[in-house]
Amino acid sequence: MKQHCSIPVLKYIFILLLGAAGLSSRGQTLHETPPWKEEMAKGYFPYHRLVASDFPINDHVHPENGMYTWGFYRYRYRDHWIAQNGHAVDRVTEWLVWSGFDRNKSSRKSWFKRIDETLPHEQGHLDINELYSRQLAEMPLEKLPIGEGASPQEARTDLSRKLRALADDITAKEKTEQDRYDAETSHGKNVSEQEKWSAAIQARLKRAGIHF
Length: 212
What we know:
alpha+beta
């Protein structure tokens, strides 16, 4: 069974979206690459270097922010259940995570002029999201939760709940870092701290093999 799950999580200046809609189907192939054609048609774009044109002008939302970034990551999986010791056990057999930039909910103000100065800070938010997304993406199947129940459906429900809990835990850790990033850089206004953070983030991206 293929599952496609979502959990929206609000963040300070940066938004993380995990998944999209609960959906399952039998007999379909779980693609090895993210469904970017579908995503881009809906305004969701792969991880990339941010530019001014990524941010539509909107003076009616987030009045306290000159620029506002909304990012996402989603997961999709295939599972298989077996009978074990008188009950059902459900395991993930295929696992796919993808992430990127949501242009629909990202914006900048028409009066905001510090775009070039602010883009490195916004990029840092997207970079941090990508780092945590990669943690989830590279989690070995044997380390993912196992669902259990009296019936196959109960086991699948249990697996879905545990995967959401796993995602919640990663999201909470990522939010803590995002908040610290904003606090220590004063939302990018502290140039020296921003440079330190940017260099450290770039080093982490390189170690993780993440690039545009």
